[in-house]
Amino acid sequence: MITSRYIKENYVRRLPSAFCPGCGDGQILNAIIRAIDHLKIDRKDVAAVSGIGCSAWIPSPYLRVDSLHTTHGRPIAFATGLKVANPRLKVIVVSGDGDATGIGGNHLLHAARSNVGITVIMVNNGLYAMTGGQVAPTTPHEAKTTTTPYGNPAFSLDVSRVVAAAGASYVARWTTWHMNQLIRSIEKAIMKKGFSFIEVLSQCPTYEGRMLNMDHIQMLEWFKNKFREDADGIYKIGEFVDIEKPELTEELEKMIERVKK
Amino acid sequence: MKAKEIIIDRNLCKGCSICIHVCPKKTLGISEDINEYGLFYPKVEDLASCIVCRLCELYCPDFAIEVVQE
Ligand code: SF4
Ligand code: SF4
Ligand code: SF4
Fold first, then answer.
1. B18, A17: Cβ pair inside 8 Å?
2. ipTM score of the complex?
């Protein structure tokens, strides 16, 4: 049985975290740790990469594996480099919705398309939290943010569906209410040969909660009641893609062998 | 299963009450005291009711609560 003492002794670099009280980011850190522990993989074979944003703090500095804390929107590019240089590594990117779809959306598309064997965990709180709660590509229509005080006139991106369409090998969406499902999904994603993507709806009480007039407990209740496997659109959770197909570094390896001859 | 002790680390706890909310047995409640950050941390209301499901540990964002099994 995994206890918080065991987690603190083995997997966390330092605490307390910089996250606001009740923020879902700590829960996602907890889930990633449990998945790594369940898989019994050597910590030396895992590398974590993040960009900029509150959720970028999940792997760096808190998760005790080798980590790269990179520039805004670029963790997937750095992670692809890591994977190509050392295909044996399990590379995990933790990126916010703003980082992964706003600043670095193109990297996400092309990582899915090329099916590079990395895992991207996208923490979705529907806005740019670290910089002050600005509108993001994931902000729902008419939702208030700091930069859309009268409601978002634009429409949000269903990121999981886009990544699935772009060719990922594994795509799932959960919320911080669905901790056990999330842990199970992270395990599958890490072991997946090709590109794997998990979207986690996470409560940001400080900005998202303030705009929605909900505290973090109400947001967790909202996740529990509204987000279901038989729901539609962004409210639909579950595993959307789980397939096997040729992976980029394997294809590269084959190409190198071919050219050598 | 029975709990021997439930330890709440007052230096890590941010008083978010998520543990209290997810506990199926209402073992935990909010204390009247505040910690160093000025936050109301949880307290054990009824240790005997705890079934050591560890949902509080699974959901705590800050690794601040630990259930010691008997
Ligand atoms: S601003 Fe929001 S996402 Fe960032 S740490 Fe605070 S609650 Fe979490
Ligand atoms: S272990 Fe389960 S029953 Fe005991 S306090 Fe935690 S959540 Fe409640
Ligand atoms: S969930 Fe953790 S941080 Fe929140 S009140 Fe409980 S012990 Fe404290």
1. no
2. 0.96
